[in-house]
Amino acid sequence: MKKINLGYAICGSFCNFENSIKQLEILSKKNYEIFPIMSFNAFGLDTKFGKAKDFNDRIESICNKKIINTIVMAEPIGPKKLLDIITISPCTGNTLSKICNAIIDTPVTMAVKSHLRIQRPVVIVLATNDALGTSGQNLGKALNMKNIYFVPLEQDDYIKKPNSLVSNFELLDETIKLALEKIQIQPIFL
C-alpha cells in the first residue's frame, strides 16, 4: 500500500509541542511518509518549554528527514505535488490569521499556500488563547474555506482563559483520514 505523503507543520504554540510530537510519533508508525515543516519561531526559539535544537533533533529523528524551515524550501510543495495533505499541529492564531488573509511570510504559510493552490487538503490543529476573541473572525472564515479542515476544538480552561480553544490532538489521525476524502470530522466543537 502506497504511503500518504503528509506535511507535518509546527508553529509556535510551544506549550503544545509535546502533544504535537506525541501525535507525530503515532503517525510515523502508520501509513504516512512524513515531511516536517516549521515556522521560523517554532524552529528557532528557545523557550521555557525547551530548546529549539532539542525539539528539532527529535522531530528530524522521528521523520527521518530534515525540517523544511525556509520559505524557499517550502515553495515547491505545490508545484511539484510533493504532499497529499498538510497538517498544522499546532496552528497558532497568528498563523491562522495569515492563512485567512494570504500573508505568506513563513515556511508554514508558504507550504499551505503552495499546497492549497493545487486544491489539496490542509488539516488545522488550532491552539490559540483568543479563538473566541479577536481570532474568532479568522476561525469563522477558515471554517468556510475550501480544502481547510479542523481537528475538533474545545475550551481548554474556560475559567482562566474563556476565549481559548485547543484542538483535541488525539483526533488528528481520524481527521486526516476524513479530510483526504474531503469530509470534515464532526462535531467540530466538543
Automatic annotation (TrEMBL):
Domain of life: Bacteria
Cross-referenced SUPFAM superfamilies: Homo-oligomeric flavin-containing Cys decarboxylases, HFCD
InterPro entries: Flavin_trans-like, Flavoprotein
MF terms (GO), sorted A to Z: catalytic activity
Sequence ranges assigned to domain Flavoprotein in this UniProt record: 5-165
Name of the protein this chain belongs to: Dipicolinate synthase subunit B
Native organism taxonomy: Bacteria, Bacillati, Bacillota, Clostridia, Candidatus Paraimprobicoccus
